[in-house]
Amino acid sequence: MITPHCRATARAIAEEEITLCVGDTSFLDYGGIKKKRQGYGPQGNGGNGLLLHSALAVDPAQGQPLGLLWQKVWNRQHRPQPPKKETPRQKKKRQAKARKASRNRPFEQKESYRWVEAMQAVEKIVSPSTRTIHVFDREGDIAEVFEQLNHLRNTGVVVRASHNRRLEQDPNRLWEKLEAQRVQLEYEIDLPKTKDRSAHTAKLVVRCCLVQLQRPTRLADSHPLQVYAVYATEVDPPEDEDPVSWMLLTSEAVTTVEMAQTILRWYTYRWRVEEYHKILKSGTQAERYRLAAEGMKTLLGFLCVTAVELLRLTYLERTSPQRPAQDVVTPLQLKVLISKTPKVPKPLTVSWAVKAVARLGGYLEHRRNTPIGIQVLWKGWAKLNLLMEGWQLATQETYREKSGSYTQKVGLDQSVSIKVLIQFRAALGCFLALCKVIYQPISTTLL
Fold first, then answer.
1. Residue 145 C-alpha from the chain's centroid
2. Which of 15-19, 205-209, 355-359 has the lowest mean pLDDT?
3. Alpha-carbon distance 25 to 115, whole Å?
């Protein structure tokens, strides 16, 4: 469903020398669905739903989200019920057998394969002239990710280490090796708020060096896993908060202080994909719907594209507020926003367009210190689409019926026939009824 959007994103970055691709997995819980549960799967703590892995393209200079490059939706399989009257000894034996079977599964059948799968899929659609750097959190710290670099020409990685790995021909492990290095850089970096820490500027001391990771037995015949390690630790953290400690492994050559700074900055952009999943859940409310699994996966295609465009719009207002408003809205959307604005400024900028959309969603502009939230942007886009439909109907002068179809006599600001609009709305009837908006392909205006 999102393939056209991903291809459009790939075309948009075709002339870029480097593009970041930040990846993360999110759980979509549909535990409230009591019927039609086929196609959903367990998620722990009694949850029931889908897993969503997203690969989001991000500008390496400013961290501006650019669009999705790949996405995967799947569900876990329910485990068979244990035999009745099972003894503790039998249970232990059954669990040991299940663990052994899990370890012996082909890598392509494991959930962790999604990290490598994303690298392979993105390499196929991105222009050979563009180098894609994948940025992963600790879940992506698997040997197969680094081994895959030997097979991909235009792909690199920045991965936060999770394992204190052994090193080839070195008695030290990874952490001990880096702690023994001299401090090469002191660097301040702005950190966003998370559930474990407050938003603040962290002062980091940085060490880095070239390391060769020891290959696991299953990859004994592969090429050496040689990467650069960048180890950053926070000094003087806020009171009652644990200091930041990042061990980053990257395929990029970190031979200068400037490159070490770049790797650290790139890693901070990883939170863009977490923000994207937050928008998907709290903005478009993707977990609210109650559909059969296949229908939900189809709906997710529309919601995921909408969520990424909301994220793009939010960051464009922050990183490029003075760009022309036409970069983020269509001509018809611009006409509607102008008609709803009492005092229209000149020139019309991205900042003005975003605030105009937010006002439609209930944003109070006199609260200038309050950032524009995703909820008001989502409501504003929904209302803007309804206003666009009213505008189109009001400017339509005549319809002529011919052979059971309606043909447009005066343009609707878009060169499509009423028949096509009717067919389009019928095909997306479920989506329109649930979201209460007229689907507008935002991606074509922003990419």
1. 19
2. 355-359
3. 10
CATH class of 157-268: alpha beta
Sign of the C-alpha dihedral computed for residues 86, 92, 93 and 98 taken in this order? positive
Q: How far apart are CA 361 and CA 375, in angstroms?
A: 8
Query: What local confidence, expressed as pLDDT, does residue 225 receive?
Result: 92
pTM (predicted TM-score): 0.83
Q: Is 185 helix (H, G, I), strand (E, B) or coil?
A: strand
CATH number of the 320-446 domain: 1.10.740.10
DSSP designation for 368: T
Q: 298: Cβ–Cβ under 8 A, 6 or more apart, which residues?
A: 1
57, 13 contact by CB (below 8 A): yes
DSSP state of 372: P
Domain ranges of the chain: 157-268, 320-446
Domains 157-268 and 320-446 in one fold: no
Q: What pLDDT band is residue 368 in, cutting at 50, 70 and 90?
A: low
Give tens-digit pLDDT for 278-292.
999 988 889 998 888
pLDDT per position as a tens digit, 67-123: 999 999 999 888 888 888 888 888 898 888 888 888 888 889 999 999 999 999 999
| CA end-to-end span of the chain | 17
**Is residue 48 a contact partner of residue 40, using CB atoms and an 8 Å limit?**
yes
Which one-letter DSSP state was computed for residue 217?
Answer: G
Residue type (1 letter), 388: M
Closest by CA to 439, choosing from 301, 326, 291, is 301
Phi first, then psi: give them for residue 349, nearest 5 degrees.
Answer: -115, 170
Q: What are phi and psi of 271, to 5 degrees?
A: -70, -10
Q: Tell me the two tokens of residue 368.
A: 């200038």
Token match 């019927």: residue? 35
At residue 55, the 3 state secondary structure works out as strand
